[in-house]
Amino acid sequence: MVTNVGTIDRALRIIVGIGLLSLVFVGPQTLWGWLGLIPLVTAFLGFCPAYTLFGIRTCPVQPGSKG
User: Fold this and answer.
1) Helix-then-strand count for the chain, H and E
2) What is the DSSP letter of 62?
3) Domain span at residue 47?
4) How buried is residue 46: exposed, middle or buried, by Cβ count under 10 Å (0-12/13-18/19+)?
5) Does 31 fall in a domain?
6) 22, 33, 46, 53: least buried by Cβ within 10 Å?
7) Average per-residue pLDDT in the chain?
């Protein structure tokens, strides 16, 4: 699996993921907060399937790699 999520993008995904996930436990206590797992997982893996579909890449190209 090729990394396509950059450092700043990862940090933002973690913040948004934790924010959404907190909706399950505090605030309106809605089940929609479980959607926060998606940005958290993609941040920790460094790979976003949607970015692959649209050809987006927010991480810098690694030396010696094609692409």
Assistant:
1) 3, 0
2) P
3) 7-54
4) middle
5) yes
6) 53
7) 90
Whole-model pTM: value is 0.84
- For the record, the structure tokens of 14 come out as 């973690």
Kindly report the CA angle at 15 between 39 and 12, in degrees rounded to 5?
70
Structure tokens at 34: 């479980």
Overall domain count for the chain: 1
Q: Is the CB of residue 44 less than 8 Å from the CB of residue 53?
A: no
How far CA 15 is from CA of 2, 12, 39, 62, 63, in Å, comes to: 23, 5, 9, 26, 29
Residue 47 lies in a domain: yes
pLDDT the model gives residue 1: 78
Within-domain flag for 13: yes
Task: Please report whether residue 49 resides in a domain.
Answer: yes
Q: Using the predicted structure, report yes or no on whether residue 31 has a pLDDT greater than 80.
A: yes
